[in-house]
Amino acid sequence: MAFDLAQYMKDRAALVERTLERQVPSRNGRAERLSEAMRYSLLAGGKRLRPILAIAACEAVGGAAENCLNFACALEMIHTYSLIHDDLPCMDDDDLRRGRPTNHKVYGEAVAVLAGDALLTDAFRIAAEPSRAGVSPELALHVVAELAEAAGSVGMVAGQVIDLEGEGRAFTREELEDLHNRKTGALFVAAVGGGARLGGASHQQLEALRAYARPLGLAFQVADDLLDVEAATDHVGKRTHKDADRGKATYPTIMGIEGSHAFARELVRRAQAALEPFDERAEPLRALAAYAVERKQ
Ligand code: GRG
Question: If you take atom 6 of ligand 1, which residue's CA is the nearest one?
Answer without folding.
Answer: 82
